User: Fold PDZ domain-containing protein from Alexandrium catenella.
Amino acid sequence: GMHSLWCRSGRRGDVTLQIVGPLGIWFEVLDDALLVGALQEDGAAWRHNSVQHSCEARQIRVNDQVAEVDGMRGEPALLAYLAKRPERKSITLRRPQELAVSIDKRGMRLGVDVSWSRPSGVLTVQGVVEGAVFEHNRSARSKEEQLQKHDRIIEVNGVNGVGRPDSVVSILEAAETCVIKFHRQKVHKCEL
Assistant:
C-alpha cells in the first residue's frame, strides 16, 4: 500500500512537454537515470525555452531527469533512443531537488571527488573521502543536509557552475567556507 502511494506522489511534479524536431539535448546517464546534461543553441529544446522564457515551470533545465518519452518508461539507453527518434511527440521531465550546504573547512581539505563529462558539463560528486565534507555529513541531521555521491554541484559561493565546472572547482579548492548549492535526483524506482 505505502509503496504505490509513494510512487504515485513522486510523479505529481513531473512536467510533460510536446516538442517537435531534434531536441539538441546532450544527455548524461547518472546512477541509472537519464539527465539533461546540456542544451545546444538552436535545438528544439533551446527554442522551446526561448518561447517559454516567462514560464519557469515549462523550461527544460540542466539536471532534469527524463522520466518518460511518449508515455514510455525504461532504461536510460531506451529513453535516449526514444527521445532522439524523429517521430517523438512528448517528453516527461522530473525536476531534481535543489539543496544547499555550508562547509567550513577549518584547515581540512574539502575531501570530495568530483568529475565532469565535458567542458560545458556539470560538476558531479563521485565520492566523499576524509575531510571537511565527511565531518559535516557526520553531524548533519538529515540526508538533505549532506553532500553525497551523485549530487550535481550547480553553484559555489554565489558563482554559477552550470556549463563551466572549472570556474567553481578553483573556489572549492581555495575558499575556507564553501556554500554549495546542488541538485539531487528524486529517485522513484517503482520496481518492487
Residues 165-174 form the longest helix (10 residues). The chain has two domains: 2-94, 97-184. Residues 2-94 form a domain with the Pdz3 Domain fold (CATH 2.30.42.10).
